Amino acid sequence: MRLLPQFTQLGDLELIEVYEYYDTPCLFSCRNVSGQIFLAILFEQEKRVEKWLYVSMSQRRLENIRAGLIDIRNAFLNSEDRFVYEVVISSDSSSDSAEIIWCENLTDDWLPMPNEFIDFGHEPLPLLEVKDAPRTAMQIQREVLNLRFQFPTPNPTEAPVAFLGKILESVQSVFNALGQAIDGTPTQTGIIPRSITEKTQLTVLGTYPGSFGIELATLPEKIEKDNTNSLVNIAIEDFFELITISSHPEENADILRQKLWKLKRRVVSRYRDFLGSLYGSETNLYFNWGSPNQERGGCVELNLSSIKKTLEIINSTEDEIVKEYEIIGKLIGLNIRTKSYEISTIEQNIKYSGRIIDEAIPEVETATLSEVYVSTIREVKEISLILPEGKLKYQLVTLRPHTT
Length: 404
What we know:
Radius of gyration: 32 Å
Low-confidence stretches: 222-229
Oligomer: single chain
Number of strands: 16
Shape: elongated
Strand content: 25-35%
Helix content: 25-40%
Mean pLDDT: 87
Number of domains: 3
């Protein structure tokens, strides 16, 4: 005899899971082509006829039933739709049937005893499972990055092609720039060497529901001893850190600037393009990183307001290091509270003033005005939306007494 009814208003059904089996499945879940989920239980069996109860339910309710949070009896007695179907399947040529029965009309003989449960714990629901980056990473032994978006489309599970393409291109560009910065030979212009981009390349594994999700992974490669030494793995750590910092931009503004300064100008530009593509698409971002190394990975959410604020921080000021050099000069101005200084060189009488970096504060605190010192000056260019051509600033990096 067929397990699933045919040609009824339940639609074309496919099996999801079997929970009880006695000669034949007698309690199982299934769904139709449109995605409607049913829990089915056999309540009467004769030689040529089987009678079943089918109850329609949401995915969340099925997950609660599978986890043993709702007993089987209540799954039918307290249907979300307040009715169930009586399904009759015949072994002869008779048509199968499905008739509505209101929950209050169900009899005890048709239902299991109270406190009978299914208990699948936290085991994911097959066919309906949302992609889980750590699980996939363990399966394929590669780093996995899941990006979930909420595009302002009529159907939230769909994505506009132009926006999605721009976002994915910007993600890859960030990784290429990070790879170059990590490699130690960054340049501000020109093509990033292929020797780097081959290592930082990401691949699309697929898409998944839950708004609109896309699953990315690193390319297959020989697994290193601790799985953390390759260029792309370090780039993932930096990318995750950037997004985490950006999720609370007002609290982390200084940390964000310091992080981007260390990663150099090209990373700043590419990361800004990535955030701009998200903001232009009017989408939040939920980022889930999974790794074969279970000590790595994590989740972070970036909402539109955080994206906007981060862009404002990046656009307001970007410091590009130009050079560092030593000068010999007299300390003519010092304010520890405002972290500012002024020095006049001995030979050319050129005056330098600006900000004292945090690391230099301990040695500057004991300095004496009008004394001569050897100072390390860091020359940086401040790039802003108001002054796109840039403005030179002079940071005091070290200060030590001058000995003749």
